[in-house]
Task: inverse folding
């Protein structure tokens, strides 16, 4: 439950999972402890959080736009400061979140060497989450997302799902 509240904790734990997942001898232990499922839940949570945050920023910008157009210097300055502060907070949030997503994706990619585990990940919505990540701007997140999608596209059902979700349009 703490993973929903503390991104730094999640980043540290997920990084440990990633380092262990680099060794195929550790896969059975990690899978037995449910690390794949945890990583998938964290990935989905962070993707949803990102979209909520972007919606909140759009709403704030719309709300502040009337003050930014104001002739009242004080109101305009206050709106500019608030927007700048929120943009900085959002940038820090996205930066840490990108690290969390990278750690999750690397762990999942390593664990997906086992085809049975890969199928379980797909059943839990991995393909749709990967397609949603295509809209991100971080190069490292995009690179691992592409690697994962290419790996999964070798199975025709996954390829069909990517087409259905309009993955190409999102690139």
Result:
């Amino acid at each position: 439950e703490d993973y929903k509240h503390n991104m730094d904790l999640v980043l540290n734990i997920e990084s440990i999972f990633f380092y262990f997942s680099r060794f195929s001898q550790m896969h059975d232990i990690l899978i037995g402890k449910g690390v794949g499922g945890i990583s998938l839940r964290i990935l989905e949570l962070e993707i949803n959080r990102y979209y909520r945050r972007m919606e909140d920023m759009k709403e704030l910008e719309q709300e502040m736009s009337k003050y930014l157009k104001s002739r009242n210097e004080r109101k305009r300055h206050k709106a500019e400061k608030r927007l700048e502060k929120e943009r900085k907070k959002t940038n820090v949030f996205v930066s840490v979140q990108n690290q969390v997503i990278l750690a999750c994706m690397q762990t999942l990619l390593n664990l997906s060497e086992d085809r049975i585990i890969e199928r379980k990940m797909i059943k839990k919505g991995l393909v749709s989450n990967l397609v949603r990540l295509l809209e991100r701007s971080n190069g490292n997140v995009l690179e691992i997302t592409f690697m994962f999608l290419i790996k999964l596209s070798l199975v025709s059902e996954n390829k069909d799902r990517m087409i259905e979700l309009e993955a190409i349009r999102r690139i």
Observations:
- The chain has a mean pLDDT of 92.
